[in-house]
Design brief:
Elements: H1 8-11, E1 35-37, H2 45-54, E2 59-60, H3 72-84, H4 92-99, E3 104-105, H5 114-120, E4 125-128, H6 134-149, H7 152-160, H8 165-179, H9 185-206, E5 212-214, H10 221-228, H11 244-286
Parallel strand pairs: 1-3, 1-4, 2-3, 4-5
Helix pairs in contact: 3-8, 6-9, 7-8, 7-11
C-alpha cells in the first residue's frame, strides 16, 4: 500500500492503542543507547527517527509519548528535579526507566535534558541537524509548535480531559516553561530564534568533535551510516522524508478526537444536567 493511501490508523498506530507499556519504575534497559539526536524541534526530527528505525535503532520522539501516557509523571519528576531542584537529580538508572527500550532519542521532552543524557550515556554518539535558514525555521516552529501549544480550544480540552490530552499538554508545557524559559505565546515567538542559536552553540561546546556528526538533511544514508558503523540499507530503501507539518496536523486531529471520546460522558452530564434541573423547576412552578 502506498503512503498516500494508508489510513490514519496505519500512519499513526501509537494513537490507537491503549497505554499498555510497563510501569516505568519497572523498566530496564534492553537495548544500548547508541545515538543522541540533539537537533531542535522542526529540524527533521521525525525523519531522523524513521531513519534510525530502519537502521535497527528504536528512537524516542515526542510522538512516542502518545502511546506512553504512563511515563508522563516520571517526565514531570525529571523536570522538577532538573529545573526546580525538587527531588534528587536523575541518574542513568532513572533514564533507563524512561528510555530503556530506546536506542536513540530525538525531540522533546528528552531534548530538554540533552546535557544530562550526554553525561548518563557517554558511549552514545551525537547527531546534530540544523536548519541554516533560521527565519524559515522560525516560521515553521511558530506555526506547528507555538500556535497549538497556546490554542484556546486545545487547552480547554486538556483542562477537561485528564486521561490523555491533559497529561500530554502538561508535559509539553513543562519544556516550554522550564527549558525554553518562556511564559506566553508572544514571548515564545519573540525569543525562539535566540533559544535556537543558544542550543546549538551549547551542544557544539559540550560535545567532542569525534563524538559528533553534523548531519545535513538530504545527504542520504552515507554519512549517517558511516558515523554509526551501520550498513547502508539495500538499494531502493530511500532515506525517509517525513512531512512533519502534515503528520502533526493529523496527530492533533486524532488527539482531539480521542479526547472528545473520553469526554463523552462528562459532556453528556454537562448538557443534560441543566435540562433536568430546568424541567424539575418547571414542574415545581407549574405543577
Amino acid at each position: 500500500m502506498s503512503r498516500s493511501t494508508r489510513t490514519l490508523r496505519e500512519k499513526h498506530p501509537e494513537l490507537y492503542v491503549s497505554d499498555s507499556h510497563v510501569d516505568p519504575g519497572n523498566r530496564v534497559r534492553v537495548v544500548p543507547m547508541e545515538v543522541l539526536c540533539l537537533g531542535y524541534m522542526r529540524t527533521g526530527t521525525a525523519s531522523m527517527q524513521a531513519a534510525l528505525h530502519i537502521l535497527g535503532i528504536p528512537c524516542s520522539h515526542s510522538f512516542s509519548l502518545y502511546g506512553r501516557i504512563r511515563d508522563i509523571p516520571t517526565w514531570l519528576r525529571a523536570f522538577d528535579a532538573k529545573f526546580h531542584s525538587l527531588g534528587p537529580a536523575f541518574t542513568r538508572r532513572d533514564w533507563d526507566c524512561l528510555l530503556g527500550d530506546y536506542g536513540a532519542i530525538t525531540d522533546v521532552p528528552a531534548l530538554a535534558f540533552w546535557d544530562d543524557l550526554l553525561a548518563a550515556y557517554p558511549e552514545a554518539k551525537v547527531v546534530l541537524v540544523e536548519r541554516a535558514d533560521v527565519g524559515r525555521w522560525h516560521a515553521s516552529f511558530c506555526a506547528a509548535v507555538v500556535a497549538p501549544m497556546f490554542s484556546v480550544w486545545g487547552n480547554w480540552l486538556a483542562d477537561h480531559e485528564p486521561r490523555f490530552v491533559g497529561p500530554l499538554r502538561d508535559v509539553h508545557r513543562r519544556w516550554v516553561h522550564d527549558w525554553m524559559r518562556v511564559g506566553s505565546e508572544e514571548e515564545m515567538r519573540r525569543v525562539a530564534r535566540d533559544r535556537y542559536r543558544e542550543h546549538y552553540a551549547a551542544v557544539r561546546a559540550a560535545v567532542p568533535w569525534e563524538r559528533l556528526l553534523e548531519y545535513e538533511l538530504g545527504s542520504g544514508w552515507g554519512p549517517l551510516c558511516a558515523f554509526l558503523g551501520k550498513e547502508v540499507p539495500s538499494e531502493g530503501v530511500e532515506f525517509p522524508r517525513v512531512n512533519e507539518t502534515a503528520a502533526m496536523q493529523e496527530k492533533f486531529s486524532i488527539i482531539a478526537w480521542r479526547g472528545l471520546r473520553n469526554l463523552e460522558r462528562k459532556l453528556l452530564v454537562m448538557v443534560l444536567a441543566p435540562l433536568v434541573l430546568g424541567f424539575a423547576i418547571w414542574k415545581m412552578v407549574y405543577g
